[in-house]
Amino acid sequence: MSSNRELPPKESATFRNVLKNYELRQYKKGLKLADSILKKYPEHGETLAMKGIFLNNLDKKQEGYELVKQGVRNDLTSHICWHVYGLMHRADKNYAEASKCYTQALKYNKNDVNILRDFAILQTQLRQYDSVIDSRSQLVQHRPTHPPHWLGLTVAYQLAGKPDKALTVLKSHEEALKDMPVSYEQSELQLYHNMLIEETGDCQAALDHLATIESKVTDKRCVKEKRALFLAKLDKEAEAEAMYRLLISENPYDGRYVKQLLALKGYDQVDKQSDANQLLMDLFSQYPRSKAIQDLSLHYAQDDSFKVKVTAAIQTALRKGVPSLFNSMKMYYGDNKKQAVIAGLVEGYGATLEAEGSFEPNGTKEPPTALLWCLYYLAQHYDFHKQHDKAMDVIEKAIAHSPTVVELYMTKGRILKHMGKIQEASEVMDEARQLDLQDRFINSKCAKYMLRANRIEDAEKTIGLFTRKDVDSLQDMMDMQCQWFMTEEGYAYYRLKNYGKALKRFHAVVKFYEDFFEDQFDFHAYCLGKSTLRAYVDMLRSEDRMRSHPFYLKAAKGAVAVYLTLADQPTVSALEAIDQADLTAAEKKKAKSKVRKANKANKENIDPTQAANANDKKEDASNEKKDSGKKKVDQDPNGDSYLKTAQPLEDAYRIVEPLLTLSPESIDTQVLAFDILVRQEKWLLALKALNKLVTLDKSLAKEKLEAIKNAVANPKTPVDPRLKTLVDAQLGRIAV
Description:
75% of the residues lie in helices and 0% in strands.
């Protein structure tokens, strides 16, 4: 192998220039040099690999892969060939395969810093933190003067759950930086150091360290917040209170500081509400414009005190015309007494404003708009209590008072939606949209209601009023990763039983989350270079729990519902499906002809999976050749590729699996998992989901218990008697 790799001096110099051209991204120039070497040495593996990666970067992916594979075959012990192969897989976001290639590359050259660095980044992306520690340790040994290597090792230890070792590494690195001037990067490093001390659980050490670094830190607010937190944890109440009061004075609009002060003094307990009320009154007298303090004051106030405060708050909001008043007051509806006080006040205001134009009989005259916003509040109040007819009467009265206020029509549409009149709701929302054609929010709301009414084409036209004109509106929604639109359209297609397009929309949302996760890749190197380690660690941790987001759950529920429908449908031949379809005679004849040709290809032993993959590759190649300025062409607009799946239950479980890790306490998660596992006849896993469901919702668990009993009694495939005995015993133990 080594003799085949060696080149004469002239070609060796040319090959070094090839490598330099790749680093400088001069792909065409590098390709010419690689061809000049291959004319004389066509089997040279490393040159073949380099030519392959040049072609890949010049939008000739398939040809590039073939050359790289050929290069690896010709020189299996070349770290360059394996590194290039890894880079190709990494560019395609196939991180598992790229990791295997890097492992092979390091097997033949364990001291290559570039391969080690790329491998460490890849391991971080794959969350293989113990392996990252090994790779980063080697990088530190090879280049101990390079700061990002030290920081990378520190972060690796922290993410592996070893903050004490991370501290040791960081201290070693800081010794070399102690004489450097104060800068943002230095400030971030000091705060990151403090973060590590905090994670070890030693609050006193963290507080002491904070005092030593304060002069070097530019983020003064963070220092104050951390000091208050550490003092509170160390039970130094007086000092902590002073810090929280200082923070409140600097930003009285941030409710977190007020809540933390209340918690510090123990006033967040039920039996301390009077003390909390007094403290909040004092704070509100100092900062009367703070909405955060006002809301907390209403939360802790009771009886007459609450009535006095809420009266002032509601009257002020009605005079000013605050549309969000109901959303502010709704948080107190959990307390029946408070809810009754609020309802009594607003209903009374509605009567007196209509009769006398004031909040109280013989009171001061209020602006005419006060009645409008009072009616607006009452409509939402009645709608909240499902008194829809009453809500409709009030909102119609408000519209008659001021027929050009957009919010009134939006509320009317919402009431109609709650009444189950989705079509009418969408029409009213469209009427609201036309009152303000420049408002993107109402435009989006209107599109959402149209989708709820299954008016898909109208919704796409409506949302297209605010998208780019050179791109199809649906494609623009995809490019902007607009989750709500794709999810709602998916459910609309599901209701219309257009399962292919429904799955395409739901999978688009799943793909968004895959993209979110992949987008972090470039930050693994960037953040270490910029020393933004606190933000970097927070980002990695948030990425790990990202799929617990409600939007992902909603899309997952829709996709699983479609897959379960497909799995439950009786198997129908392609020709029978065409006969049942709503097509003309000519269309049926054409479709049947295609099916017969496909069946003939199958009889000739053509693997349909390989054929599909070949088609995908052709589509990828054709898409790559298109200029970025041209419109993208969707090769599967109807989502037929999703309908052709031979394993709908496996596809469904793949979507639900992240939720079982990230949102195990969600009822929806356990129900989705149970419904899939029962159909797969994975009884023990289904029992595990059922046991979890018992702790979350007993009534629903009872329903599912009957479902699994029926499924076990009538299995589709033979069940091992021992397994059936075990399952029956477990079912008997589940107490619902």
